[in-house]
Amino acid sequence: MRAAGASRGRHGVQGVSSDRDRDSRETLERVRRDSETVGSSSLARVGQRAADHFSGRDAIGAAEGGGTDPVELWGRRIGRAISVLVAAGLVWWLGLQLRWW
Predict the structure, then answer these.
(1) pLDDT exceeding 90 applies to what percent of the chain?
(2) Are 75 and 82 a contacting pair, CB within 8 Å?
(3) Contact residues for 65 (Cβ-Cβ < 8 A; gap 6+)
(4) Nearest alpha-carbon partner for 59 in 74, 45, 48
(5) From the CB of residue 62, how many other CB atoms can be counted at a distance below 10 Å?
(6) How far is it, in rounded angstroms, from Cα 26 to Cα 71?
């Protein structure tokens, strides 16, 4: 007796197989993301994500065809650096207004 997916023919089996593969990959990714591994803490992962964000690594391969425009990459880096400086300036100004320093 054939399995239910096998009666559909070659394309039906491929569709079932690819759905199972995709579900398996999603489950493994979720487990990897949610589980703590030895030597890797949540704080270390957050720090790495912040470093990747401010270095513009999320822009790599974001263009059509997987390429990266160097001007866009440096624009993101400069913009994010300026945002950190502005945020620090606002915290300093708030501290002055509240007479913390």
Answers:
(1) 22
(2) no
(3) none
(4) 74
(5) 14
(6) 34
CA distances for 44 relative to 6, 35, 40, 90, angstroms: 46, 14, 6, 27
pLDDT digits (tens, 9 = 90+) for 38-78: 556 778 888 888 888 888 887 777 666 667 788 888 898 89
Q: What is the mean pLDDT of residues 71-94?
A: 93
CA count, 13 A, side-chain hemisphere, 45? 11
What burial class does residue 56 get, using C-beta atoms within 10 Å of its C-beta: 0-12 exposed, 13-18 middle, 19+ buried?
buried
Q: Is 1 helix (H, G, I), strand (E, B) or coil?
A: coil
CA quadruple 83, 89, 92, 96: dihedral positive or negative?
negative
Q: What is the largest CA-CA distance in the chain?
A: 80
